[in-house]
UniProtKB/TrEMBL annotation:
Positions of the Histidine kinase/HSP90-like ATPase domain: 20-143
Keyword Transferase found: yes
UniProt cross-references to InterPro entries, sorted A to Z: Anti-sigma-factor_SerPK (IPR050267), HATPase_C_sf (IPR036890), HATPase_dom (IPR003594)
Name of the featured protein: ATP-binding protein
Single GO MF annotation: ATP binding
Organism annotation: Actinomadura nitritigenes
Keyword Kinase on entry: yes
Length: 239
């Protein structure tokens, strides 16, 4: 299953692929990442790094995820904190998280994470929801620098359109969200106790460390951060 096209990634979109529930998940993830990155103009060396890294993540997702659910592969681009391609593997198993450090490759609790960290610019994991259903789970991700040919011209995006797209992205993943706009085109989206302001210069919201700001082109990054924040809050407030 696929949503989005590789070309959509350059204009704020994403690709989401459903992976098999068997050991072929790693091979399928390598193939999908390579095909997507080739179309986006990445070099062969960078694609090879991504294939190795995503293979480790997909293998771990298959090992630890329920056999009744499909892992997912997500790919999008972000401009902050840097120009990066984000590659994530989602599974529904929240009881097992990757352990970074110098774990041996055969270590059940750190398998291959040292490889991913060595190849990627950044790595991480967080609570989230499926992009193809509304299933809750987690994702493990890594980033790589965008290619030199990446279109970096400033894109003019209407705040109202960006607001509508973000609202659709959140609701499509089962996140209750509401929105309103004023005559100036400024919109405010509300998710639980969080307000997200959408204006001509980007998305902004407040967290415990201060204001977070993302350009409107970073729709996927913004949606993922809000979903993760909501899921983390829900998880820690479970009875």
């Amino acid at each position: 299953m696929l949503t989005g096209r590789p070309a959509d990634i350059t204009v704020g979109g994403a690709c989401a692929f459903q992976l098999p529930r068997d050991p072929s998940a790693a091979s399928q993830a390598r193939t999908l990442v390579a095909a997507t990155m080739r179309e986006l103009g990445f070099t062969t060396d960078t694609i090879d790094d991504a294939k190795l890294a995503v293979s480790e993540l997909a293998t771990n997702a298959h090992t630890h995820a329920s056999s009744a659910t499909h892992p997912e592969l997500w790919i999008w681009a972000r401009t902050r904190p840097a120009l990066e391609l984000v590659v994530s593997v989602f599974d529904t198993h929240r009881d097992t998280w990757p352990v970074s450090g110098n774990a041996d490759l055969l270590d059940e609790h750190g398998k291959g994470l040292s490889i991913v960290a060595a190849l990627a610019t950044r790595t991480g994991s967080h609570f989230t929801r499926s992009r193809l259903t509304t299933t809750t789970g987690k994702c493990v991700w890594f980033t790589l620098p965008l290619p030199a040919c990446w279109p970096t011209a400033v894109r003019v995006i209407a705040p109202k359109l960006a607001s509508d797209n973000l609202l659709d992205a959140l609701r499509g993943r089962g996140i209750p969200a509401t929105g309103c706009s004023d005559d100036r085109g400024i919109s405010v989206l509300t998710v639980a106790t969080l307000n997200i302001w959408v204006g001509p210069t980007g998305f902004s919201w407040r967290d415990r460390r201060g204001y977070v700001r993302q350009p409107l082109i970073d729709l996927q990054e913004t949606a993922e951060r809000i979903v993760s924040r909501n899921e983390t809050r829900q998880f820690h407030h479970q009875p």
